[in-house]
Structure formats: structure tokens, C-alpha cells
Amino acid sequence: MAKIERHQKDEKLSRIVVHKGTIYLSGLTADDRKADTAGQTRQILQKADALLKSVGADRSRLLCAQIWLKDVADFDAMNKAWVVWLDGAEPPARYGRSKLRVARYPCRNTAYRRRLLISGVR
After folding, report:
1. 79-104: per-residue pLDDT in tens?
2. Can you give the C-alpha Rg of the chain in angstroms?
3. Domain region containing 115
4. How far from 89 is each of 46, 84, 92, CA to CA, in Å?
5. Most buried residue, 14, 30, 83, 102, by most Cβ within 10 Å?
């Protein structure tokens, strides 16, 4: 049976799960909820970099990204920050959605402009 590694966990979730070389990051949000869309995007992507690095991976190894935006009008600002962050790395498969509905419930904190879920490989 393949080992499942769980990192940075508490009683609710693991921030990172690794199975058979595939990395799953839990949903990421910005710390500064007052930042604009580009600022929140940069914060989230910095978190993704740190989490990936902690398990021996980086943004060049991404498989898929799921993006939730508070408002579809934020798409261009988010996309610009995303492309800068990729910095020439091969882009992953990507899915975007607006209205920030996660697990059937609206986002309780409306200051979050976006959330991101990422998977990749080592």
C-alpha cells in the first residue's frame, strides 16, 4: 500500500498531502484581506511556493490549479499576477470560478477576493 504523507496538519486538515509523488495543497487565502486582487494573489502564491518547497517541489511541477474569485471582474488582475508568478514555467491545467462558493456555503469572510487550490508532483 502506498504511503500517504500529511504535513502541517491540525484536527481539521492537512495543509499538504503527498501520495505517490502527487502533492495536494489545501485551499489557500491571503493574510492581508484588505489587499486588492493582485496583492491577495501574490500573497497566496508566496504561500504556495513555501508549501511546495517544504516537500521538495516548486511551481514548475504544477499539475492543476482551481481558482475561486469573489467577482469575475477580478479575473484580469489575478491573471496578471499569476503569469508573473509562473515566470516562464509550464502552466498547469486550470479551473476558475467566481462567487467564492466553497463546500455549498458562501465564503463567510467577504474580504477574501480569491482562494486557490493547487496540486503538483515532486
Report:
1. 999 999 999 999 999 988 776 554 44
2. 14
3. 4-121
4. 15, 10, 9
5. 30
Nearest to 97 by CA among 68, 65, 66: 68
Q: Which residue type occupies 52?
A: L
- The structural domain count of the chain equals 1
pLDDT attached to residue 97: 76
Spatial separation of the C-alpha atoms in residues 118 and 4, rounded to whole Å: 17
User: What nine digits make up the cell of 55?
Assistant: 516537500
Q: What is the CATH number of the domain that holds 97?
A: 3.30.1330.40
Round to whole Å and give the CA distance between 36 and 27: 19
Judge contact between 86 and 49, C-beta under 8 A.
no
Fill in the amino acid letter for 7: H
